[in-house]
Structures are given as C-alpha cells and as structure tokens.
C-alpha cells in the first residue's frame, strides 16, 4: 500500500473513497432514526428558499437537489455528506501535492486530517453546515494557493466562488479569508497579488454568490442571528471581567480541542526533529500559520470587545484544516525527517479509519447499557407507522413539535407534507383541506407530554379545526434495555 501511495496520487483517493464508502454503508446499516441535523435537513428539503433559519442555506440547497433526485431517504442524507467530505479531502490532497516536493509528506498531510475529531468523527455523527464549511475551506485554500502559484483569471474566479460558497455555508467562514488577507499582506512574495486587477473578479463573484441570501439576511436579521448570538453569549455573566475570562477559556479549550491531537499524533513520524522543524519554514508555511493564528486573534478580539463568551470546538476546527499541511511544510523546509515517516504514520491513519465507523456503530448498540441513549435509539419509524395506522383516514398534513421529529415523519411517510410549530412562511400546504390533520409531539421521551403551546396556538389559528381523537404510544428504545420506553403523543383534528 505504501508503494502505491508513493507512486500514484490516485491510490490516496482510492483509499479515501473506500473509507467514506464504508462510513456510508455503516450509516445505512444503522437504525433509520434521524439525528438532529439529519432531521432538520430532511424537513427543510421540502422547500427551496433564500434562507431558512440561523444557518446560511448552501448545504440546504444541495440537499434539496439530492432529495429531489433520490427522494427523502437516508441515502440522500448520507450520500451528500460523504461526497462533500471526500471532495474536501481530495482538495486538501491536491493542495498538498502542489506545495510539497515530497509525496510522502503530501500523503501524511492529507491523512492527518483524520486526526481532527470534529472533522473525522463529529462530521460523520451529525453535522451538516459544518461539513459545508469544511468543504468551502478546502476549496478556498486550494483556489488561493493555485492563484498564488499560477495566477490566472480562472483561479482568481475560483477563489471568489470559494469565498462566496463559504459565506453561505456558515457565517464564521468570513474569518478565514479575512485572516488570510492579513497574512498575504505581511508576506512580500504574495503581497503584489492583492494589487492585481483580477482581484476585482474575485470580489465580484463572491458578492454575486452571497447577494441572494444576503438580501434575505437583511430582511430576516433577527431570525438569522438570534440562535447564534444566544449560543455565543451568556446572560448569567454579570461582569465584563467574568465574561472575558470565560470567553478566553472557551477559546483556549476550542483551540486545543481542534489542534492538540493532530500535533501529538504527528510527533509519531516527525518527533525527532521538533526543534529544527520549529525553526524552519518558507513563505507557504508562514502564510498558513499566520492565517490560522489571525483567526484565533480575531476570535479573541470578539471575546474582549464583542461580548462573546462561548466558542464551540466544531466552529473553530475548520480554521485548522490546514494545520497538517502547515506542519508538513515546516518539516520539509527543515530538510530532516525520517525516510520511513509514511510507514510510521499510515498505521495511525488506518486505525482511525477503523475506529470512526466502529464508534458510530457501537454508540447505538451499547446505548442504554454503557452510555446514554442516542438519537438513533428512538423508535421513530415504528411509532410514526403505528400512529398513522390508528387513523381511519390518512391525514392530509402532519404538524410536529420540532424539526428533528418532522424529518423522521417525512422519512417514514414521504407522501405527507410536514410542518413545525410555531408556523413560519415555510409551512407546507396540506394535500387536501378536507382531510384530517395529525399533531405529533414529545417531551424528550417522557410519558404523557403536554401539547406544546406553539402547537395549541397553531390549532387555534385554523378556523373550524376541532379535535377528533387523542392518543399516546410508548415503544422500547432500539437495542435498549427491557422496560425502557420512549413516549409520543398524537392528536387528530378535522373540520
């Protein structure tokens, strides 16, 4: 395998392709109960909109197209995610082979991305918009470095496309090109590229890609920022000093969670020359190193002056996507690394390639015994099928208490329009106004959950709608302990 990886770039792509195919097969073999982001994606795939919620819409748009092509299925969800992750790794491999003279180092730099838990495990477990962020970051640096090495109108345009896609993938992406712009201005070898007229093409394409969603964002600013601001701030912190201390501690923890394991595992092939590696570098390693550092600096400024007190590691991890390549560039610049570096690191990568799908599998089968029940442990399909069978007539519309539940309803009954209370502009139209409406809700699986107030308000807003029946269903968790039940409630309304 090592000889093949050294001789042909296609061998690396085949290895990565096999890994992501394995992850697809694992997800398809596990219960079809959808995770949080999976359910949200399948729910939103009913609509094509310029904006949806507090996350930008790029992943939703692509998912909508895949669902239109393949139907609302688990295959539609897992195929898109793994194709996008595979493309991200392929772009990083292309970037590594462009910058590094050593093929061994390029292979190590690509496979070392697996050492980032947020990119290897969390992205497979249940991330969507962050997967789009990983893809757009990989595309941005691929396009940027090609622009710097082989400046052409096409690469300037591709860089603009990457910036536009990144911005409508996740809003915090904008920190990456901003940090890179500062890094470029500090490197004399690259500074002149900032004064090339073709940079106007980059800006024009980026603006053109962002503009449709940007106009929606301006009209829905409170809706688009409310959840994100709520996640990044803590109203319980009463003093500025306390907020800054908590924020900087959170930033430090997120930085370590994103980078520490990668650095430690790269000591396996490169550990003996650490001192020489730290002293070495070139214009490319300085560019990448400064880009990562300036992202952290900007986040620190947001903590100190912007009131940010909480930063999740998965928000920061894509900013460190170039860390393995940065280290490989410094190692190559030092001129000293073991000839068998790839021999030492490949087993590490292969072990991770086995552990990730294994962990994704065991977390379902061991839930309720050694770990708490997972979202995939909830018997959505059986419950939804039983509730629909209890009705004398198939409903024309289903209203649920949350988007994850709505996505699971759509997976089990793809012919039914599904809405979520409180209602929004994206509430689907019933199949027929004369057919009954079914309400389904839950309270974290607890027995006898009360009908949520937003659902009550929706019912009251519908003229002539009256309750015809109400029921509960309790089913055992999938692969759970005997006697452990998950509870749903449902009601049927008609005119």
Automatic annotation (TrEMBL):
Instruction: Indicate yes or no for the key word Nucleotide-binding.
Output: no
Q: Where in the cell is it found?
A: Cell membrane
Listed name of the protein: 4-amino-4-deoxy-L-arabinose transferase-like glycosyltransferase
| Cited InterPro entries | LipidA_mod_glycosyltrf_83 (IPR050297), RgtA/B/C-like (IPR038731)
Q: Which organism is it from?
A: Rhizobium paknamense
Highest taxon of the lineage: Bacteria
Where do transmembrane segments lie in this chain?
A: 79-100, 127-145, 174-190, 197-218, 251-271, 292-311, 345-366
Main localization, broad class: membrane
Domain Glycosyltransferase RgtA/B/C/D-like residues, every copy:
55-216
Its record classes its membrane topology as:
Multi-pass membrane protein
Q: Which UniProt keywords apply?
A: Cell membrane, Glycosyltransferase, Membrane, Transferase, Transmembrane, Transmembrane helix
